């Protein structure tokens, strides 16, 4: 049984807010794959270097909205590039084409169906001093935006949680300007994500609640070919997909599964006894111990980045 109910996320928003700052450096690293896939430089050229409008869907408390906003912020502490004395003098390094490439700029509209997530995101953006971002609660299956409003639509680990993901894909396509691009980061199958497989098995054994029982289906875009077909059916062209499997290196004494576990099952864990929580940690360590090398966990995560254009 999966229902991907927004209520589930509402009860998890405090867990997302709690972990967000500590997870931000790791988030920034994987978000760059989405920024590359969006190809902001080409879009900016297409728009005559006008500022780009990005819509991030199911933003939670800020990812990848913050990364896109940083990528599109006006550069600070840099001499303006393009034209003038820099051109007259010629580039210091003839391979350095970036010296003559204007930095794409723009604004990010972040959104999520859960207002508490949006509030957390707004507070974090203010703390971080990110100026080129605004936040609006929005259901990605029924977007409150006109056709042709955005140059980029992004969504990290969100589309699979919609009740009707195909409707959400069509909505993304609708709000894109011609030539604009949608980029989705989606989980690869559970078998390629040992952390999630361990969580599902351990919580299922000890609390009787795995992904199915929690009403969460993170892996429904795991099959690349099927996911690309879904994008095509929604109207996208020039569809691309890449797969990434980074593995962190975390000292074995660190219960590194806690953030993900809280952010997906925090509402259930809050009611668990101390004894159950201890048993969960022991079983997670045991299940993931084959990934310990040199005193460090090296557990890969695996995800796809799908992108498609509106013709
Ligand atoms: C796994 S979290 C991902 C959050 C963020 N993008 C990230 O990667 O850190 C999934 C998010 O999708 C949101 N969500 C679920 N269904 C949604 C819908 N129909 N429209 C918009 N957001 C939705 C949830 O509220 C939650 O914040």
TrEMBL record:
Residues 78-111 are annotated as: Disordered. Transmembrane segments: none annotated. Residues 104-183 form the Methyltransferase type domain. InterPro entries: Methyltransf_11 (IPR013216), SAM-dependent_MTases_sf (IPR029063). Residues 93-103 have a biased composition (Polar residues). This is Methyltransferase type 11 domain-containing protein. It comes from Thalassospira povalilytica.
């Amino acid at each position: 049984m999966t229902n991907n109910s927004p209520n589930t996320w509402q009860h998890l928003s405090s867990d997302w807010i709690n972990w967000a700052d500590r997870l931000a450096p790791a988030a920034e690293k994987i978000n760059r794959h989405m920024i590359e896939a969006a190809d902001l430089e080409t879009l900016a050229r297409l728009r005559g270097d006008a500022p780009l409008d990005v819509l991030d869907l199911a933003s939670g408390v800020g990812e990848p909205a913050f990364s896109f906003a940083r990528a599109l912020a006006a550069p600070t502490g840099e001499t303006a590039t393009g034209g003038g004395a820099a051109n007259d003098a010629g580039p210091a390094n003839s391979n350095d084409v970036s010296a003559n490439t204007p930095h794409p700029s723009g604004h990010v509209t972040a959104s999520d169906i859960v207002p508490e997530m949006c509030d957390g995101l707004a507070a974090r953006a203010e703390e971080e001093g990110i100026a080129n971002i605004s936040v609006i609660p929005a259901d990605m299956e029924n977007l409150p935006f006109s056709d042709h409003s955005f140059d980029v639509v992004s969504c990290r680990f969100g589309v699979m949680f919609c009740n009707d993901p195909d409707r959400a894909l069509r909505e993304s396509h609708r709000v894109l300007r011609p030539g604009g691009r949608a980029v989705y980061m989606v989980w690869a199958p559970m078998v390629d994500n040992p952390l999630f497989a361990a969580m599902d098995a351990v919580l299922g054994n000890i609390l009787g609640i795995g992904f199915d029982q929690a009403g969460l289906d993170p892996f429904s875009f795991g099959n690349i070919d099927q996911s690309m077909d879904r994008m095509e059916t929604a109207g996208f062209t020039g569809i691309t997909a890449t797969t990434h499997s980074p593995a962190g290196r975390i000292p074995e004494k660190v219960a590194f599964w806690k953030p993900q576990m809280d952010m997906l099952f925090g509402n259930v864990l809050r009611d668990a006894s101390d004894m159950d929580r201890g048993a969960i940690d022991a079983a997670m360590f045991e299940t993931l111990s084959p990934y310990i090398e040199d005193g460090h966990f090296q557990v890969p995560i695996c995800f796809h980045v799908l992108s498609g254009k509106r013709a």
